Amino acid sequence: MVMGDGHQSEYELENKLIQKLNAIGYKSVKIPDVGAMVDHFRQVMNEVNAEALKGTPLSDDEFKRVQNELRRSQGIFETGKLLRGTDTSPYGRVAITRDDNTPLTIYFFDGKDWNNNIFEVTHQITNSDGLHENRYDVTILINGLPVTQIELKRRGVDFTQAFNQILRYRTESLRTNFLFNFLQFFVVSNGGETRYFANGDGKLNSNFMFYWTDEKNTWLNELDLFTVSFFDPVRLHSMIAKYTIFDEDNSRMIVMRPYQVYAVEAIVKQAQEHPEKNGYIWHTTGSGKTITSFKAARLLAQNTNAEKVIFLIDRSDLDIQTAKNFNSYLPKSGANNEPALDRTTNTKNLVSQLTDTSTQLIITTIQKLNNAVTSDKFKNILASYHDKRVIFIEDEAHRSQFGEMRKNVNKWFMNAQHFGFTGTPIFKENIGKDGRTTDDLYDERLHSYLIKAAIRDRNVLAFNVEYINTIQGHGIVTDEDTVAKGIDKKEVWENPDRLKMIAQHIVLNHGNRSKGRHYNAIFAVPNTRVALQYYEIFKEMKTDLNVSSIFTWTANEADNEDNQGETLEELKTSRLGLDKIIADYNVKYGTNFSTDTFPDYFADVSKRMKEQNENTKEDNIDILIVVNLFLTGFDAPRMSTLYLDKKLQWHNLIQAYSRTNRVEEKSKPFGNIVSYRNLKKATDEAVTLFSDGDKSSFFAPDYNELHGEFVDNIVTLRKVVPTPESVDALYNATDEELAEFVQSFRDVLRTFNKINVYDEFDWANFSDFSEQDLENYRGKYYAAYEEWKKRTRDGGDDAGKVSVLDDIDFELDLIARDVIDVSYIVKLIRAITPGDYKDDVRKIKRLLNNADSKELKTKAELLAEFLDEVVPQLQPGDSVPDSLNNYLIDRRNQDIEKFAKENDLEPEFVDEKVNDYEFAHKMKEEEMSTELAGMGFTFMKTRSLKKKIVSFVEEAVDKYILS
């Protein structure tokens, strides 16, 4: 069937998809509703477990026990872990007792062998148990469990409407039955554009809908091509069993992207088939190399005969947050259940792990490993490793694998295989003193994912690079290398007036570039002396911006003679200068650091840069002045701008630029580079080298292009609604007309978010549209969103009515602002470091006290009590997420027991009602009346008690459920 406009209908698209799935091995089953889905799951469980059941299918009571065991894993995250089992036993299973008291293990997923699972497809499951009745387009089942939900739109319709439809289903119905907690992935498509993304307990972000590709990074966007590749039963099984990562600290599932999957598979294949050859992965900076290398290390440990797999990283990467991420993704190690990553400098701990036969995967630094193999103390203990097979996974291979430490490691581990990861390989053009390229060191490139592909896929952002001329004069050219002979370069570049002019330019424009301090920036300078000068200049300007600095120093600096003083106060070494900066830092943030505790200062600076939030501006660092630190390996999505007064080239330039291009929200369209030196030639050369000759996608659109786009979008908006006041009349018109306003103003916001960071941007250039007009339209836009929510979601007169607005993305993140809601607070709590919690607790409690979200207010007291009662008792190594979950469960059970006792009820009965409401978001009041009457309560008592139970259950779910 083809629609009148020539587009393929959604019905036809759905049928063709099912036919294609049938062709690649999926059996079609008819499941009209949720009840039928549960019955079908029971039938499949009897089939899959036939041998264990010994000819006697599950009885009603036994199947109820299975369901109860599956319900114990609350939420998508915990259910996902239950589905996969463990590394050593990758099976989804639950244990029950049969009616005859014999033990029984029911298996519902085999993560080891895809062929031991049943792959099925159904469509149009109707769910009437939620807030509104929903029908789901196409559902993929494995062993009767719904594991992937596919939502379709007809060709020609924006596929993101399907994403918003899924958000609506999650709110209205998907949480009503425990089986839907097994949904691992969603897929959305309009036939020509197809994306996939992971399910989760928290908010879903459309920025993390991923393309699927082939091994050469070619898009498989057409639904047919996507289906044949992604839904191949072997591939889908691997995506579930192997290529999903569990982030314990944030309780979220991370599904890997195609290039990450292909890289891991290439490494495992090389290790299994060519153990004598090394290899490296060239994946552009910001594309998730660390996750890829983690997964490669784990699979190598499971699928090769290597004695040890050693994940080798550079110590300079080990800020607190990075270490927490490592330990969040990986299981504990050894008999003592220690964190996978040992951040101490104690080489003895590493040697202990090397000799522990229960630990196959080790994470350590190249510095610590070098200490172990060069120390006489450990030579005899480690002698056996001369011949044992060891596999090394080496992160940031462009930086730490060239030098004496690498040579020492190679001499000791003579039967080792090395796999490197880098975003900027070493080529002949950027070769160092070592004289070797990445190809020389690692033999063979196994997979590539270059910056042009990453920008195309929106896995990283493009760059807006601006060069600001700061030098004028006869014979002086703005390129540093071409400053005229006879002129002191240092005197030119470090002239105090020039530095002041640059600082003034930064302060004047930082508000626009940072979206009102929603984002932050790094300012890279050539040396520590200039860093100190800039810091003093910003300090003297008395700006509202929080400016700090961090750098390392040498004990005996070459220019100490030029910076002598009669007294200690007048002596100007870099370290003493940094001590003064840290003293200011301590006053501003209530900390107690010095250069003697530099690692702690580094960790705190890193944390503040990553946790930038406009609601806690007093805790932020808006601009961080650096020399070399933070220019490689530092990953902070809230950093949007790099100010440069420093010469950079080749991999150092790309690495520094790439600090700004992490994907965050739609209000961050690209990374901003503001260079106060003419680095255009160096930038073009570096981009050409690291983009394999194609630099077309590296740069953001120029100002003139965006100016034209902004004007066109304004004209379109004025045609729809000539004035902001005109929007009000649309509420008496059709939803289609209101949707037209939403879409046209959304286009204006999209372009504004790109253009307003340019120095050329000036409202005076737009005679028919002012900044006040934008704000007035913005207010109407947000009001339209609130009205739509009220009408369709919150039980208004039009609740349940299908509206064209339902599946339109309002893209409220275009309005750059930090929303302090439950998920944000819980994220902050989970990030607390036991033993070093006071600053975090102070910040979170301040946010709780100022909570304006109704949902957050109901939980504020409970969360504050957790911060006061539990967090101070936690020890280093304790899990804050687990502690929070246990605290909530204990408090919830206490309330249930108290309520049950006060009303002569069994706690189990009340607990069941809370669980039912948590899933379905509505009470089965008739069923409850029957149950209460069966307990012997009179008619009047049943009526009053039912009201009490409903009120208690609603309050309990509002209070204790965080997602």
Q: Count the strands?
A: 22
Oligomer: single chain
Q: Roughly how many Å is the radius of gyration?
A: 30 Å
SS class: alpha/beta
Overall geometry: globular
Number of helices: 35
What helical percentage do the residues reach? 40-55%
Describe this structure in words.
By secondary structure, the chain is an alpha/beta fold. 44% of the residues lie in helices and 13% in strands. The chain has 35 helices and 22 strands. The strands form five sheets. A six-stranded mixed sheet has the order 1-4-5-6-7-8, with helices on both faces. Strands 13-12-14-15-11-16 form a six-stranded parallel sheet, sandwiched between helices. The chain starts with 9 loop residues before the first helix and ends with a helix. The model is unreliable at 483-487, 564-571 and 793-800 (pLDDT under 50).
Give me a quick take on this structure:
This protein has 35 helices and 22 strands. With about 950 residues, it is α/β, with parallel strands linked by helices. The strands form 5 sheets. The protein has a 6-stranded mixed sheet, sandwiched between helices.
Give keywords.
single chain; 963 residues; alpha/beta; 35 helices
List the helices and strands and how they pair.
Elements: H1 10-23, E1 27-28, H2 34-48, H3 50-53, H4 60-71, H5 75-84, E2 91-97, E3 103-110, E4 119-127, E5 134-142, E6 145-152, H6 160-172, E7 185-189, E8 194-198, H7 223-230, H8 233-241, E9 244-247, E10 252-255, H9 258-273, E11 279-283, H10 289-303, E12 308-313, H11 320-329, H12 347-355, E13 361-365, H13 366-374, H14 379-382, E14 390-394, H15 397-400, H16 404-412, E15 416-422, H17 438-442, E16 445-449, H18 451-456, E17 463-467, H19 489-493, H20 496-513, E18 520-524, H21 528-541, E19 547-550, H22 574-589, H23 598-610, E20 623-626, E21 639-644, H24 650-657, E22 671-675, H25 680-690, H26 703-720, H27 735-755, H28 771-792, H29 822-830, H30 838-849, H31 854-869, H32 880-902, H33 907-920, H34 925-934, H35 939-960
Parallel strand pairs: 1-4, 6-7, 11-15, 11-16, 12-13, 12-14, 14-15, 17-22, 18-20, 18-21, 19-20, 21-22
Antiparallel strand pairs: 2-3, 4-5, 5-6, 7-8, 9-10
Helix pairs in contact: 1-7, 9-10, 12-13, 13-16, 20-21, 21-22, 24-25, 26-27, 27-28, 30-31, 32-33, 33-35, 34-35
